[in-house]
Amino acid sequence: MNIVMQDVFDHYGVQYLCDYIDTQEFDQFTPVRQSQAVCQTEDGEFVYIENRNGSFGLPGGTVEEGESLEETLERELMEEASVKVLKAWPLLVVRIVNPKTMEIYYQARYGTIVECLDQPITDPDQHVIARHLGTEQDVISRLGWGPKLDLYFRKFHETKK
Q1: Which of 17, 13, 1, 28 is nearest to 104 (CA)?
Q2: Closest by alpha carbon to 36, among 157, 156, 159, 161?
Q3: Chain centroid to CA 68: how far?
Q4: Torsional sign, CA 23, 13, 60, 56
Q5: How many CB atoms are closer than 10 A to CB 150?
Q6: Is pLDDT above 90 for 122?
Q7: 88: DSSP letter
Q8: Contact at 8 Å (CB) between 107 and 94?
Q9: What are the tens digits of pLDDT across the range 54-101?
Q10: How far apart are the C-alpha atoms of 44 and 152, rounded to whole Å?
Q11: pLDDT over 70 for what percent of the chain?
């Protein structure tokens, strides 16, 4: 297993430990609970989302019962960013450890080429309020995720077909 980066992610006061694994084979990891993507339009712009709490992120979300990762990706990108996936490919896997329970689970990261649709955001959780388009640098600045987002973009460019 090739761990290319490690960091800590704070989620409601819990410091989750994250290993970023350089692999395009998601089948060997279980359970994979979420699917998220770096999305680029055919015109070369990148898609990011704005949340009701004022934060920004990449579209994606939780795998529902009976869904494949690809189905989750398509559904979540449609709901959160009103985009249609034209092409998708694996970037990497994030292994997440809850330090309180030692539970381990995974999240899949994809690269996508998307088409922006002229439809409203339909996020059932109503967290996402807007879709934005920008350059890679715009996304990096707006999200403020540091090295992990740099890694996502590097993997996006390395693996884009």
Answers
A1: 17
A2: 156
A3: 15
A4: negative
A5: 13
A6: yes
A7: E
A8: yes
A9: 999 999 999 999 999 999 999 999 999 999 999 999 999 999 999 999
A10: 16
A11: 100
pTM: 0.95
| Cross-strand bridge partners of residue 18 | 7, 96
- Residue 36 to residue 155: CA distance in whole angstroms: 14
Please, are residues 92 and 151 in contact by the beta-carbon 8 Å criterion?
yes
The answer to whether 40 and 112 are in contact (CB under 8 A) is yes
Q: Would you tell me which CATH number, out of the four given (3.90.79.10, 1.10.472.80, 3.40.640.10, 3.50.50.60), belongs to the domain 3-159?
A: 3.90.79.10
Centroid of chain to Cα 155? 13
Q: Can you give the pLDDT at residue 11?
A: 84
How far apart, in whole angstroms, are the C-alpha atoms of residue 152 and residue 8?
16
- Residue at 66: amino acid letter: G
- In the chain, domain spans: 3-159
Share of the chain above pLDDT 90, in %: 96
